[in-house]
Amino acid sequence: MSSNESAYRSSAAEPVRLEEPVRFDEHGIDPIPASARDSTPWQQFWIWCGANIAPINWVLGALGVTLGLSLVETLVVITLGNLVGCAVFGLFNVIGHRTGVNQMVLGRGPFGRRGALVPGLVQGLLTMGWVGVNTWVVLDLVIEILAQAGVHGGTGLRYLVAGLIMAAQLLLALYGFYAIRTFEKYTVPVTVLVMVVMTGLAIGQADLHWTTATATTAGDKFTAVTQLLTAIGIGWGISWLPYSADYSRFVRTEASDRSVFWSTALGMYVPTVWLAALGACLASAGDGGDPSSLVTGAFGVMAVPVLLLIMHGPVATNILNLYSCSLAALSVGIRTARWKVTLVAGTVASLVLVVFVHADSFAQAFDHWMASILVWISPWAAIVLVDFFVLRRGRIDVATLYRDGGANVRALVSLALGLVAAWAWQFGTVPALQGPIARTLGHTDFSWLSGALVAGGLHYVLARRAHRKAPGAAPAETVS
């Protein structure tokens, strides 16, 4: 048993010293004691709002127009789709608030301690990859800004900028949750104000085409809707589920589930829909889908201060990636301090970034592959959701998550079949990950739905059947 987990047994935490504005986060994967849970729902809103004010949302919002939908159709899909995805995200944050436990350890509930190793490893690897991808995106934006200002430094300048960005991200993640919370609290409101100005300027200058659409048949429109739902509709909120409880576990115990749900769901919903809608509007005016092009085309010389502040989004995303990466590593059994794991993750991400700096085409291909492989989240999330809210009726004995145990074979089988179902109805940019159902049904993409229904439904059926055969046993009992 690790030192992080043994801390749960004693759970004698020192009182929080509120006079310290930012303190070092010494917590690992042990449940956060009530005395140390001082975050508010409002602070959770800023964390998730900051992480989603990012250029990628412009691009994904513009995707609807690119796929052939009209501006009105794109806005409807983005607005309604995110209602579902962000609501599920809010529910996962409620689980973290009720238990005080990080997300990958919570996965031990349905999968068992050993069974949860697989999702934990996947989450740890993906988060490191995302840090490299997101920093590469930020780097391109900074170089674009400096070029407009007349600063050209070649590869040396790229390395300097990349080093500064990575150092800032790594420092915040090393310091932990309290530094992340403070960073978002003071930077996001300013960024939101800039977004208000930017939106006003963009809409005022752009010649919007509300009903023009290149997809003319019902089949083409339906295909475009499904792909947009996966990219920036329902799928966007789902993509953040493995991170959720890592932060809501710090919310005060006296805060209501409702306040946690709404603060986190809206923190995800507002910036995602806002930026995606802005990207769609600019794309409908013929300004393309590249982040730099979208901004510079709309604002001209004003793009420099706008881009400098909008860079905050990817940085805010990466500090969550680095922090959650360290928790995922500890959850699979690595026994060391959280900050040491974060340092290793930052180093690996830096090496990935070096490769990207020298190979933009490879970086783009890797970015597409990363987006496609996130299909694993929907079946995993469905199992966790069904297990906690349906089978366990919203409660779990936290101590059982930290006991030695085997793997729940039923949950792992459900996950495997859910992954197959998700792949079968996925149509991404990577040919190998385009499933037969998606290709047969006109390139539609319902991967998030097929994966969730198969995995969640199968887990429920198998767990109930096992419970009936063994009266008195827990529905999610682990087996070796």
Automatic annotation (TrEMBL):
Q: Name one GO cellular component term.
A: plasma membrane
Q: Which CDD domains match?
A: SLC-NCS1sbd_CobB-like (cd11484)
Gene3D superfamilies registered for this protein in UniProt: Hydantoin permease
Q: Tell where it localizes.
A: Membrane
Identify the keywords attached in UniProt to this record, alphabetized.
Answer: Membrane, Transmembrane, Transmembrane helix, Transport
Tell me what this protein is called.
NCS1 nucleoside transporter family
User: Has keyword Lyase?
Assistant: no
Please provide, alphabetically and separated by semicolons, the GO molecular function terms listed in this UniProt record.
Answer: transmembrane transporter activity
Membrane-crossing ranges are: 45-69, 75-95, 116-139, 159-179, 186-204, 224-245, 266-286, 298-320, 341-359, 371-391, 412-434, 446-463
- The reply to whether Transport figures as a keyword in the UniProt entry is yes
Provide the family line.
Belongs to the purine-cytosine permease (2.A.39) family.
Q: What topology does it adopt in the membrane?
A: Multi-pass membrane protein
* Taxonomy, superkingdom: Bacteria
